[in-house]
Every structure is written in C-alpha cells, then in structure tokens.
Design goal:
Order of helices and strands: HH
Number of helices: 2
Strand content: under 5%
Largest sheet: none
Length: 53
C-alpha cells in the first residue's frame, strides 16, 4: 500500500520489553531512511529471527 502523504518522523521511542511492540518497531525501522537505534528490545527467539531477516 503506497503512502501518499509522506512526512518525516523524528523522535525517540523506548518500547517496553513486549514481543508485539518489538516486532512493530523492527518493521518500522526497516522502512526508515538512515540509522535507527532501538533500546529495550525483547530478546525472544521470534524477535531475534525477525531481526536477522
């Protein structure tokens, strides 16, 4: 699904150690331009697998 209204999002988000939020933040940072820094990412097997993709 293409985005018609592309705007720059800047900021800091410190997610709780939650599997669902960890998956979402990895997907969002995968679409970001530039570098992303993630803190407090849940270290579960499926989150680590997604990180390696």
């Amino acid at each position: 699904m293409p985005l018609n209204n592309k705007s720059i999002i800047k900021g800091t988000y410190l997610p709780p150690g939650d599997k669902s939020i960890s998956h979402r933040i990895l997907i969002l940072t995968g679409q970001a331009i530039g570098k992303s820094k993630i803190k407090n990412l849940l270290e579960s097997e499926d989150v680590i697998t997604l990180l390696k993709q």
